[in-house]
Amino acid sequence: MAADAFTLDSGNTAWMMTSAVIVLMMTVPGLAFFYGGMVRTKSVLNMMVMNFVAVGVVGLIWILYGYSMAFGTSTTGFGQFVSSPFTYFGLVGLTDDKGLYPSAGVPALVYVAFQATFAVITVALITGAIADRMKFGSWIAFSAVWVTAVYFPLAHMVWGGGFLSPVGKVSEWLSTPIDFAGGTVVHIDAGAAGFALCLLLGRRKGWMKEPMRPHNLPFVMLGAALLWIGWFGFNAGSELAADGVAGRAWINTFVATCVAMLAWMATEKVRDGKATSLGAASGVVAGLVAITPAAAAVDSYGAIAIGLVAGILCALAVGLKFRFGFDDALDVVGVHLVGGIVGCVMLGLVATHHQGAWYPDGAQDGLLYGGGATQLLTQILTAAIAVVFSFVLTYVIGLVIKAITGLRVDEADEVGGVDLALHGETAYESVPGTGRVIKEVNA
After folding, report:
1. Contacts for 19 with CB less than 8 Å, ≥ 6 apart
2. Do 337 and 188 meet the contact criterion of CB atoms below 8 Å apart?
3. What parts of the sequence cross the membrane (predicted)?
């Protein structure tokens, strides 16, 4: 933990508070609309409520002990992996001079707020893999256990002084891993978790036998637009300052996303004969995911390259579920896991400290920028550790919850629609079953 004296920087503080607000907007309403539009009419409310409840569950836990586990001073004996939940339990004892980065001039509580929004959206992202079929109570229990056992430790490992951080270093024969804004902590983490959970839940009834198209594409595009806007706070805000590095992160986030959207639509056109609105929205998210770990660590050409590769590979990767038979309902694996890996690994090729870019002490230029293969090997290993860590622990957590409460709704409830079965309401009056509810209420 840094021991520098704290001096308030009002400009940086204002930027961080603004960033925290727009990153929270990424989950609700952004992700809620994006995922909500992609599911069928009978499950749109359940999807949106799962995103909302992720904010409630994770937000409470983050304030109680989550921040302490991720960024506190470790007294557990496992400081390379996780910090003590009791150092700042309830944020008691957390003063500005004890904040992780007092030199930025941002009050510790503002940093707590900013990082809370990262924890929230990481959990919410997983819902896209389990659409239409998970018990609501089991989702709440899973959210609480998973964020505690998986997210907080990985955040500590990468950002809080653990062995994947600039302070810890994964190995003396490798360089410092680069993850500017959460390619491993957020996207690889959520993608691997979504993969494990969708395997445990199994396929939706009728999957690959009946149409399961998005019910509201304007919702999807609205959600993607809100995600894109909020992501500037996500990436540029991770600098913790309103400066040139934040400007570089903003520009890279913008251009990589532009290129990824165009690349996804071009891939669709070549493969399917048409470029779709769903493809445009998905390409936006793929580009945002991939540039996240590299946001301030590449120049404009590197950002363009990352967006191009992510747009093409993620567009192709979403078809893997049909080839291998796993029902990743809203393409969490194809977009977040694959996109996160693309961004993380490509840093080993295009990372640079020139042209306003930045990376942590101990990191090196990428292979294509004259830095040799060390950074590439480091990034590959870092991505692999994140995948294995998240997948294995998620699978174990899912098995335990499945044994205690069950994971999946009854078949009749799934076929009839989880909105009505789990929440007693539907999004649209024309949905079968709504009339029955209205008659009962009016009776």
Report:
1. 114, 233, 234, 236, 237
2. yes
3. 14-36, 48-67, 108-127, 139-160, 180-202, 214-234, 249-266, 278-295, 301-320, 332-351, 376-401
Closest CA to 349 of 390, 293, 389, 387: 293
What DSSP designation does 438 have?
H
pLDDT tens per residue across span 6-16: 899 999 999 99
Using DSSP's 3-state secondary structure scheme, residue 134 falls into strand
Are 394 and 146 within 8 A, CB to CB? yes
* Residue type, position 85, single letter: P
Structural domain count, the chain: 1
Output the DSSP codes for 408-427.
B--HHHHHH-HIIIIIS--S
DSSP for 316-376, please give it: HHTTHHHHHT---TT-HIIIIIHHHHHHHHHHHHH--S-TT----TT----GGGT--SHHH
The conformation of residue 5, written as its DSSP 8-state character, comes to P
Q: Which burial class, exposed, middle or buried, applies to 35 when counting CB atoms under 10 A from its CB (0-12, 13-18, 19+)?
A: buried
Give the pair of three-digit tokens for residue 315: 């567009």
> Residue 23 corresponds to which amino acid?
V
In a domain, 285, yes or no: yes
Q: What is the pLDDT of residues 374-413, one digit of tens each?
A: 999 999 999 999 999 999 999 999 999 999 999 999 999 9
Return phi, psi of residue 204, to 5°: -65, 150
Residue 360 gets the label, from left (phi > 0), alpha (psi -120 to 50) or beta, of: beta
Helices 189-201, 374-404: crossing angle, 10 deg rounding = 40
Mean predicted confidence (pLDDT) in 347-373: 90
- In a domain? residue 423: no
Task: Please give the distance of CA 244 from its chain centroid, rounded to a whole number.
Answer: 25
- Segments of 136-284 assigned E as strands: none
CA–CA separation, 440 vs 195, rounded Å? 40
Rounded CA separation 203/130 (Å): 9
CA dist., res. 48 & res. 32, Å (int): 5
Angle between helices 44-61 and 108-125 (to 10 degrees): 150
CATH number for the domain harbouring residue 330: 1.10.3430.10
Contacts of 30 (CB under 8 A, 6+ apart): 223, 226, 227, 229, 230
Question: What is d(CA 218, CA 33) in angstroms, rounded to the nearest whole number?
Answer: 9
Examine residue 50 and state whether it is found in any structural domain, yes or no: yes
In a domain, 420, yes or no: no
Q: Average pLDDT in the 418-438 region?
A: 74
- Domain around 144: 10-408
What are the start-end ranges of the H helices in 62-203?
A: 67-71, 108-125, 136-146, 152-158, 189-201
